[in-house]
Design a protein that fits this description.
Layout (H helix, E strand, L loop, with lengths): L1 E5 L4 H12 L3 E6 L13 E4 L5 H10 L4 E4 L6 H6 L1 H21 L4 E7 L22 H20 L2 E7 L1 E3 L17 H10 L5 E4 L11 E2 L1 E3 H16 L6 E6 L5 E2 H13 L7 E4 L14 H7 L8 H19 L1
Parallel strand pairs: 1-2, 1-4, 2-3, 4-5, 5-6, 6-11, 7-10, 8-13
Antiparallel strand pairs: 9-12
Helix pairs in contact: 1-7, 2-4, 4-5, 6-8, 6-10, 8-10
The structure holds uridine-5'-diphosphate-4-deoxy-4-fluoro-alpha-D-galactose.
């Protein structure tokens, strides 16, 4: 297969590229390096450019005969999307439209889209399955839902088949330690706790202990990026082999929730082996955080044959800690 990976120099996209190239696929990455890193895209050809540039897209699709496209290049910070919605609608919606139109012009028929649990909004029940209503409560979730909707129309009008994969909490790092998360600023729980343990950050603040959960902290479904990527590969294969068609969507998580407190405890056990510990501070609730988000991912398992390999929180933390230790020693 020849695959275009848009955003392939980022946290999840780069892991995807590694997996595809190891499976023998030919990959071209398009990334504007706004949050990605050239060294993370070292497994294949990298085109530095932006989806806002239709001429670049035209050249790219003329030069290569792609079998399919995977799209990871979105802005993904909920808080930022509340302050600057235009940034989210421009990049996540309008630029994705440019990409889809280029695909249609060049008759590329298969598309895998990084969607999000944020399309659901405040959960009506957990675990959240695919028939749960989608009422996003922030521009980030709304922008992703708009693309899901566009994909339905592009299938009807142009026969473009797609799979939208709704990630719950993406985390972990390359099991081989070659790539991992390097967001700046970092806002996600696991890397922040690990930075507090490695000394790159003073402490970790728990955002609220008064939620209606057993220990009062928020519960999330943490899913390893390697498992997210295997779902993408299986989804693209299912489309290309003709086993699936339409504009499909699957939730991706482990179906098991961990509270912020449980994640902190899991990290404490792992980092203690290296003689590290961390300072914990108490903070207010972060606006917009639902108490509990857990995926029902049984449809992806049934329909794609997907099976997470790194569902265990300790393994996720170990991989992320190995990556953080490298980063911490590089930064010092
Ligand atoms: N948290 C803290 N302290 C921190 C950071 C986070 O207590 O310093 C808590 C949050 O309040 C939340 C949990 O840790 O309860 C997880 O927070 P993250 O920021 O790591 O992840 P989110 O659940 O907020 O967001 C993730 C994705 C989003 C996606 C969302 C879907 O990162 O892209 O899930 O709801 F939109």
């Amino acid at each position: 297969m020849k695959v275009l990976v848009v955003g392939g120099a980022g946290y999840i996209g780069s892991q995807m590229v590694k997996q595809l190239t190891h499976a023998g696929d030919s990959v071209v990455v398009l990334d504007n390096l706004s949050t990605g890193f050239r060294e993370l895209a070292r497994y294949c050809e990298l085109v530095v450019g932006d989806l806002a540039d239709p001429l670049l897209l035209e050249r790219l699709f003329r030069k290569h005969d792609f079998d399919g496209v995977m799209h990871f290049a979105a802005h993904s910070l909920v808080g930022e999307s509340m302050q600057d919605p235009g940034k989210y609608y421009r990049n996540n919606v309008s630029n994705t439209l440019n990409l889809l139109e280029a695909m249609v012009r060049h008759d590329v028929k298969y598309f895998i889209f990084s969607s999000t649990a944020a399309t659901f909004g405040e959960p009506e029940y957990v675990p959240i399955d695919e028939v749960h209503s989608q009422r996003p409560i922030n521009p980030y979730g709304a922008s992703k839902l708009m693309v899901e909707r566009m994909l339905q129309d592009f299938h009807t009008a142009h026969g473009l088949s797609s799979v939208s994969l709704r990630y719950f909490n993406a985390c972990g790092a390359d099991p081989e330690g070659e790539i991992g998360e390097c967001h700046d600023p970092e806002t996600h729980l696991i890397p922040l706790i690990l930075q507090a343990a490695s000394g790159r950050r003073k402490s970790i603040t728990v955002f609220g202990r008064d939620y209606p959960t057993e220990d009062g902290t928020c519960i999330r479904d943490y899913i390893h990026i390697e498992d997210l990527c295997s779902a993408h590969a299986q989804a693209l294969e299912a489309l290309i082999l003709g086993h699936k068609q339409g504009a499909l969507a699957f939730n991706l998580g482990n179906g098991k929730g961990y509270s912020v407190q449980q994640v902190i405890e899991a990290v404490q056990l792992v980092v203690a082996e290296d003689g590290c510990n961390l300072m914990i501070e108490e903070g207010e609730r972060r606006p917009g955080d639902p108490a509990k988000l857990v995926a029902d991912a049984s449809l992806a398992k049934r329909e794609l044959g997907w099976q997470p390999q790194y569902a265990d929180l300790e393994t996720i933390v170990r991989h992320a800690w190995a990556w953080e230790k490298q980063r911490a020693s590089l930064v010092k």
